[in-house]
Amino acid sequence: MLNKTRNIFITVVLVLLCLLCIFRLVSADTNAPTIHEPENSAIDLLTAQELQWIAEHKPITVGVDGYFPPYSFLDEHGQPVGMAVDTLTLIGKKLGITFVIDDEYRWPNIVTNFHKHNIDMVLTMVKTPSREDQFAFTTPIVFKSLVIITKKSKFSINNRGDIAGKTVALVKGYQYSDKVGTEFPSVTPYYVDTMREALEAVQAGHADAAISFLAAANYFQLKYSFADLKVATFYEKNNANESIAVRNDYPLLTSIMQKGIDSLTATEIKAINEQWGANISLPKDYQGLFELAVVAGILILLLSILVLQSKLNNRALLLANRETEQANTELNRLKDNLQQLVLDRTFQLTNSENRYRGLVESLEDEYIFYQHDREGYIYYVSPSVTHILGHTISGFGDYYDKFLTDNPKNKAISGYIKRILAGEHLPPFDMEVFDVDGNPHSFEVLERPMYDASGQCIGCEGIAHDITARKKQQDELYQLSHFDELTGLVNRYYFKLLLEDEIEQCQKSSQPLALLFLDLTRFKVINDNFGHSAGDFILQQAAERIIKGLKGHYVVSRFGGDKFCISLPNTSAASANIIALELIDTFKHHFEFLEQTIILGCRVGISTFPEDGRDAEAILSQADSALYEAKKTPFCVAFCNREQAIYNKKRLLLEQSLRQALQVSTLQHSQLFMVYQPLMELTGYRLSGFEALIRWEHPDLGVISPAEFIPVAEDTGLIFELSRWVLSTVCEQLVIWNNKGFDFKRVSVNLSALDLMNILLAEELLAIIDECGAQPSWFKFEITETALMAIPEQSIDILQQLRSADVHVAIDDFGTGYSSLAYLKSLPATTLKIDQSFIRNLMDSAEDQAVVKAVISMAHSLGKIVTAEGVELQEQVDYLLEHGCDIAQGYFFYRPLSAHEVGIRFIETDKQPLR
């Protein structure tokens, strides 16, 4: 009875142990994810409501951890890539959704943005009870196991419990980091920002171990050649799987993403995993094998007991024999499995070695791997040094500083290496090295210390990334974004930054600063008439003249168009005024372009710090205002004042209003209109013609004097459009008068000095006359003496073309300029007009009388007619008549008349009254 009871007890124990073995063997595979092949595509399963929701909520923004390789990380171009990103892209393709990845890639910031609903989803997140209360989750898309990484040469850690009392590198903000602290209070955490930094901490000896995900650890070991690291054991298996997390107020989006995940096939998932090297076998849990071995030992012991019992009971002996036979079979199976495990591990190591070799070979265009001792002697360099720098491997065996250029950045390298040899963890630093031909190459270098078996630092090993092409692109982009491409001067954006810095320095040292705002006169005329190539040439030459005219510390910027800005720190207002006058003097000399003589000038507005402002924007605005004031002064230099700011505002209004007036002006409805002042023969007081004068009546500002708006038109280039409008309007009016039979003689039309810059002026004027149906013989064009002498040769050519077409020419304001007698003799003008400044005080000024008599005498000797302007008194008329003046105009005879008034006085009455 005792033997029977003992046999029953032994049988029960055997059954329990067998069940335990089966449970341990089965549980090893229960955590593996199961992938079902979907029968239909996910997009076919979306409901109408889900499709409508997608259409209404575009775009869908996704937060992606940029430091979680190979699942998600940033490539060398700063773009997110990895297994999870490819999975998201594939889901989007199947569902017809284009996801927008948020530009924040740090995990703590991603979680913060997710809480604030700044993003709709997080691509990978571990589902925990606390997070389930805040977010919705899909089924996992990333299956991960946590492993413990240690150095091969230090600290034997065989199971998760061995980390107790150790220093462990953990990633801040990751879910498992807090869990480790809870489970192992004796662990000293060494917090880092990324898993790569966790492995580097172990490699550098800052931590005894690091806890990382298996695939991520494998990725970093291959990428950064962490040769001294190994996977010691599991921390947890398949318990850190990550799902797509969705805002809890978007339940439909959770359903849509789940359908997208369900639509992925096993083939597609396998392809993504193989692409990123994630189809790796998990390291074998030797603790589990040890437990199986213990169980097997217990079985053998029990079988031995059964053999002893069989001597007492034949029936028990037969049963024990059968059980022993089964146990032997199981042991043989375990032996075969163990052999297969060894073969698999060997195959994995071979694959890893091949991948490492392939990685090195594929990076030979950009990366050099090297090792040097503590004194800097390079005793190993990868073959890529020949491909990149042209040096042979043996030729590169020397101290590293032999190959360095004299770039100032290289001076810091020796200090970096000393700190690395001391065990300090440094980020990548820059280095510039000569190639075999003496050309410099820029490298980004990452170095780490090397240790011998006893843990002593013996030197450094590093990876040098050739960034020469990237640095060249960066330098080119910097040049384009900070300097003017045409002149090479600082551009507007960079000038403002430098000006702010200079103002700050002057404020600290209690020193003044002057700002010069310079523009070129008549530049738009050059650009319009000679083309942009001439304009570009002038701007380049102007920049050179400005720089040559400056001394000391300054910054010159092309501020846009023909405007230049010059900052002069530690310069007073008086000194700035002298510098401005010197610059103006340098522009008095003409420019030569393709055998063309071009005469320009410049004007300078000046503002000072701190009087005119305490920041860059303020003094720039004040200098711009001063520039407009400079245009009215004979010296072309002005400082800013309050009145000038008011004037500038009105001037801008005039410019805008004049542009609008030119767009809507017609004979029937116009703010602009023409008036006609009769010219009278002094002998007989007969009509000799009219002078056409433009007037402007603004709907809000009232009548605006030509003396006020003509300079605005000349400065802005509107003078060309205004001159054409005047000629066309006069042509239309003369056609009307001609059809009525009115003999208006000739009508004078004024030309601007800027018009004469156009070498095709005569052709264009005659074309307008012809298009309007008028005749050249109806016109007399008036040009001021000053405008004529600016470019005399070209002006004479234009006037000769007009005379050849039977157009008369009058020299207006004669006597106020400095005409050369040689030019006057050859001038194709029919009339000289004495300026009204000589007529105004004619009866009281002997000097004015002398000028008038001289002009009349000289003009008649050259066969030209003389016209006097501004005649208002009988005494003036008598004097002019006595000395032979031919024609006069002024209020003594008629004020300027509208076309309607001309019709009443000269056409309808069929007579020509004097007043």
UniProtKB/TrEMBL annotation:
Residues 511-650 form the GGDEF domain. The chain crosses the membrane at residues 289-308. Residues 1-28 form the signal peptide. CDD domains: EAL, GGDEF, PBP2_BvgS_HisK_like. Residues 651-910 form the EAL domain. Keywords: Coiled coil, Membrane, Signal, Transmembrane, Transmembrane helix. It comes from the Bacteria. PROSITE patterns: EAL (PS50883), GGDEF (PS50887), PAC (PS50113). InterPro entries: Biofilm_reg_signaling, EAL_dom, EAL_sf, GGDEF_dom, Nucleotide_cyclase, PAS, PAS-assoc_C, PAS-like_dom_sf. Residues 427-479 form the PAC domain. Residues 317-344 form a coiled coil. It holds the Pfam family SBP_bac_3. NCBIfam families: GGDEF, sensory_box. This is EAL domain-containing protein. It comes from Shewanella litoralis. The lineage of its organism: Bacteria, Pseudomonadati, Pseudomonadota, Gammaproteobacteria, Alteromonadales.
